[in-house]
Specification:
Layout (H helix, E strand, L loop, with lengths): L4 H8 L6 E6 L5 E7 L2 H6 L10 H9 L2 E6 L3 H15 L15 E4 L7 E4 L8 E3 L5 H14 L19 H4 L13 H15 L3 H17 L3 H17 L6 H4 L4 H13 L8 E10 L2 E11 L2 E2 L5 E4 L10 H18 L7 E5 L2 H13 L6 E5 L4 E4 L2 E6 L5 H36 L5 H11 L2 H5 L3 H5 L6 H13 L2
Parallel strand pairs: 7-11, 11-12
Antiparallel strand pairs: 1-2, 1-3, 4-5, 4-6, 7-8, 8-9, 8-10, 12-13, 13-14
Helix pairs in contact: 5-9, 8-9, 11-14, 12-13
Length: 486
């Protein structure tokens, strides 16, 4: 068959990666949405072996005037995105697809003492629904961990705290907090529920930090059995939570965000909807503690699990060179993406002007890596394109510019925060290690106990001498050093 030149060009540039494809007619209307494990192979198959086509397929192919794609991390994620798009656009050639009947949710019931349930249907009942979960094995592992370390009540009986009774067998087995017997308060129970929500939302770092604080409190209060349980829970979480729920699966993409991303695609002449966008920035102090950072937006929102920072290695300490720093950051970022077959963004944003953009382009060309790239200059808010002397200036009210500004501001914030923490850590630890009689272990213990050098400097010798391993003589040495090296 004769394939239209525009379609031929599109097919030639499709990746052999998972994703969703959207077929449009001459009016730009979406007439079919599909998913694929390998986009190039699947989409190209529509234009081969025409003698085996059904009349319906033949009509679809005849009407196709344009094809766009959305890259996803996996085939399972592609199925979820496909389902959302079919529900939103109801393409003529699609069979109805109901995502809610395919994948389960974890439901936290709307009660004073909530229960945990598994369901395939979301209802407007005030309950919290987490998911959907496309990997049944991962969900079961999370459920086993929750049953062992974060058990909620399983009975449906109405709880009356003023009418205490004997706890059920589940309590004796360690599978319940004994809420039905009045053995835990509503606030204690709600704290466990919030722990579970963090677990199923994939926010393991935040959950572990909460548990670590409780473990330290128990240890200080000599509640060693409780502290040991928190320790074991933390180990179990770190072991299990390599699994992360993709942000694509957590909530629906609202129509406003979809329109903004579509406008961005049209303005920047992108082949693919910018579902995932990387943004890059550099931060340093007079050439010291130079860091390059990358933040990632998915569906117009930050995905902090994908943020990355890079300590710049190829510049002498004290040398300021933002161009070389951007070059190194971009190259290391996409070297890692290529090496580990990570999903690539559909757009990269560089904080800066033509110079930064030129060096970022140099990095990806050396890698033989392809990604659309622009730069956004601060103050004037001018958009620069590679090898194009004509920049783009958008109205400040344009939502496409606003989403780019949010990206630029977020990577700027992240870069400054990363640099500041590194600088403070270096200054803090280098000073402590210079104190006579203080080694690395003791310096760490002092910081953990008192919080900062500033706090230590305000103590009296007698107060400081009470710290583990610190006598009055060492305390005086420490305070004298701090007071003369502030």
């Amino acid at each position: 068959m004769n394939i239209k030149p525009k379609i031929q060009a599109i097919l030639k540039n499709l990746p052999q990666r998972p994703g969703v494809y959207l077929m449009r007619d001459c009016d730009g209307k979406i007439i079919y949405v599909g998913k694929a494990k390998k986009l190039k192979r699947r989409v190209s198959s529509y234009f081969k072996h025409s003698k085996f086509w059904s009349p319906r397929l033949a009509k679809l192919v005849e009407l196709i005037e344009d094809i766009s794609i959305i890259r996803t991390e996996s085939e399972a994620e592609a199925l979820i995105v496909e389902a959302k798009l079919i529900k939103r656009y109801s393409p003529f050639f699609n069979v109805e697809l109901k995502m809610s009947e395919k994948y389960p949710y974890i439901k936290i019931t709307n009660e004073d003492f909530p229960r945990l349930e598994i369901t395939r249907h979301k209802s407007n009942d005030g309950a919290l629904y987490l998911g959907p979960f496309v990997n049944a094995g991962s969900m079961k592992n999370l459920l086993r961990l929750s049953e062992r370390y974060f058990p909620l009540r399983v009975c449906k009986a109405k709880i009356n705290p003023d009418n205490a009774k004997r706890p059920c067998i589940e309590y004796n087995l360690g599978h319940s907090m004994g809420a039905c017997a009045g053995l835990c308060s509503k606030s204690e129970y709600r704290e466990r529920v919030s722990d579970l929500i963090l677990l199923f939302d994939g926010k393991s770092a935040e959950l572990v930090e909460r548990l670590r604080n409780r473990m330290e409190t128990c240890a200080k209060n000599l509640e060693f059995e409780k502290a040991a349980r928190f320790r074991d829970t933390i180990k179990a979480i770190w072991k299990l939570t390599r699994y992360k729920i993709s942000s694509v699966l957590q909530e629906d993409l609202d129509n406003v965000t979809w329109q903004i991303l579509t406008r961005l695609q049209e303005l920047l002449k992108l082949k693919i909807l910018p579902w995932r966008i990387d943004a890059f920035d550099i931060s340093h102090t007079h050439g010291h503690e130079t860091y390059g950072c990358c933040v990632v937006f998915e569906q117009g929102k930050p995905n902090k699990n994908l943020y990355r920072r890079f300590k710049i290695k190829n510049l002498p300490d004290g040398e300021i060179n933002d161009y070389e720093s951007i070059y190194e950051t971009v190259k290391r970022r996409y070297s890692h993406v290529m090496k580990h077959s990570e999903p690539a963004a559909q757009l990269a944003l560089i904080d800066g002007g033509t110079g930064q953009l030129e060096y970022a382009q140099k990095a990806i060309h050396e890698l033989n890596f392809e990604i659309p790239m622009i730069a956004l200059a601060e103050r004037e808010e001018i958009i620069f394109f590679p090898n194009n002397p004509e920049p783009m200036i958008l109205d400040y009210s344009d939502p496409a510019l606003q989403i780019l500004q949010r990206l630029r501001d977020e990577v700027h914030r992240y870069a400054i925060t990363t640099h500041r923490h590194a600088r403070e850590s270096r200054m803090r630890h280098s000073k402590l290690h210079e104190i006579p009689g203080i080694g690395k272990l003791r310096a760490t213990e002092l910081l953990v106990k008192f919080g900062s050098l500033e706090k230590i400097a305000t103590l009296s010798p007698e107060e400081l001498a009470k710290a583990h391993g610190i006598g009055i003589i060492t305390a005086n040495k420490i305070l004298d050093f701090l007071n003369h090296n502030a």
